[in-house]
Amino acid sequence: MSPRYSCIEVALDADRVDAASGLLVGAGATGLETRDASTLVAGPTGRAVLIAWFDAPETATAASERLGQWLGPEKGSAVTVKAVEDPGWKEAWRDYFKPMRFGRRLWVAPPDRDPPEGATDTIIRLLPSGAFGTGTHESTSLMLELLDDLVRPGQGLRVLDVGCGSGILALAAVRLGAEQAFGIDVDPEAVEAARENAEKNGLDGPCRFAGTPLDEVDGTYDLVLANLSAPVLIAEKGKLADRVAADSGLLLWSGLLDTDVDEVGTPPGLTLVRDLRRNEWVAAAWGRPAKGDDR
Ligand SMILES: C[S@@+](CC[C@H](N)C(=O)[O-])C[C@H]1O[C@@H](n2cnc3c(N)ncnc32)[C@H](O)[C@@H]1O
């Protein structure tokens, strides 16, 4: 029997889609689809239809209540929750996922489609799965661009990827030159998908994935990666900062909208090194202040 999911469907103004998507991911959505004027299945003019998928009906119901409160009395918005059979993501994924370049060196591609000739040394291949992370979402692509910029071979970098999803960030970091990466995720299916992707890329030696809670991760890392949602970053920013190596360690985080930046604040003991923004999504790199630097 094909798996069953719960899904929320809502019609809203097109300019509220990003913020609503952030809210739904924060409320536990495991997949999102937007239909608007630019998509194959079009939405109504000036408006969009946002569909969010959830593994459990109670998560969907709680998320729909939060979304309803956030939307307020927006004209014509109706949030509906329904149970559906597997909508065939694994096949649909193939139609939309094409080789994509991030920064100057990095390509992400499905197993059976090659990037253009010449791009051979920094390709990662991702297998279809329900785990988040193909690079098509801004929160992931901003992180990949930061990695392309910061990671070079020979630096001996050790990476912690918190909320690894498909494993895309850990795999990219190692492919770009990091020595090793450890990815963790609260979702066991994500851990399994990340392990399969590591094997597919021949990176199952330097890349390890596990369901270890962040609380139980020991030691510090040169790069801590966290593409999470604003509520999770608020809750976990102290623990994320604790895992950043003294001196030149960095925390790279993503998954927040520019309207979340003030509320999410700053990871304790770290200062902003740089940020990147695209379509309301923000990613930032944080480092320890240099000695004698009172930034
Ligand atoms: C937005 S996805 C990011 C996936 C991938 N790293 C990327 O950049 O595309 C967030 C992931 O974090 C996981 N997650 C959420 N809260 C977490 C937590 N407290 N600890 C570890 N993983 C968490 C989710 O299960 C999900 O796979």
- In DSSP terms, counting alpha (H) and pi (I) runs of 4 or more, how many helices? 8
Oligomeric description of these chains: single chain
Order of helices and strands: EHEEHEHEEEHEHEHEEHEHEE
Bound ligands, each once: S-adenosylmethionine
Q: In CATH, what is the homologous superfamily of the largest domain?
A: Vaccinia Virus protein VP39
The overall average pLDDT, rounded, is: 86
Question: Given this structure, which CATH class of the largest domain is correct?
Answer: Alpha Beta
Compute the number of structural domains.
Answer: 2
Rg over alpha carbons? 19 Å
Explain the overall architecture.
This protein is an alpha/beta fold and 295 residues long. It has 2 domains: 4-87, Alpha-Beta Plaits (2-Layer Sandwich), CATH 3.30.70.120; 93-287, Rossmann fold (3-Layer(aba) Sandwich), CATH 3.40.50. It contains 8 helices and 14 strands. The chain has helices at 17-26, 57-71, 89-96, 138-150, 168-176, 188-200, 230-242, 261-264, and strands at 4-13, 31-35, 47-54, 80-85, 100-102, 106-109, 123-125, 158-162, 180-184, 207-210, 223-227, 250-257, 271-278, 281-287. The strands form 3 sheets. It has a 7-stranded mixed beta sheet with strand order 10-9-8-11-12-14-13, with helices on both faces. Strands 2-3-1-4 form a 4-stranded antiparallel beta sheet, with helices on one face. Strands 5-6-7 form a 3-stranded mixed beta sheet. α5 links the parallel β8 (158-162) and β9 (180-184). α4 (138-150) runs parallel beside α5 (168-176). It is globular, with a radius of gyration of 19 Å. The relative contact order is 0.11. It binds S-adenosylmethionine. S-adenosylmethionine (SAM) binds at residues 25, 132-133, 139-140, 143, 162-165, 168-169, 184-187, 190, 214, 227-228, 232, 236, 255.
